[in-house]
Amino acid sequence: MKNLFAILAVLTAGLIFVSCDNDDDYKVVLPLYEDVVFTQQGAQVNARSIVAGKQVTATLVQVKKGSGIYRYSYKWTADSEQLGLATYVKDMLDNADATCTFTPSTPGDYTLTIDVDYNYGSSGTPDKPSCEIPNGSVVYTMGGAIKSQAKITKQIRIVHP
Asked: Hey, what domains does the chain have and what are their CATH numbers?
């Protein structure tokens, strides 16, 4: 009987070590953004020289992918209808770089805004990241144990064809 208790004690001690998992594996990490890049006719163009009247694809590029997030929701808007971008909303279930396509009609200076909602389980509030993008800004708002947001703005210039 003593041997049975000794074996049981050893097994219990082993289970304690196995069950003590590192909670950091489940920590939510918000993505870091490098820039918003633009392509027209298959070539990347400078944000200050996008040609009016031609379709452009904007891509929000991540320098570090997020983790522990089960839904990303992107809302793309512009400060003027002349940019040719009606509100564009896209939900994604992965952390791929988000894109939006539009055709600007009028030359001028505009602000492109991307509002991102991150939904995650109750893994605790993630750390608030900090990053900068050229000619723009990234501001994170921590929403607690299930949701956070980011607002990315980018100054762009539309030029004559």
From this structure: 28-159 (2.60.40.10)
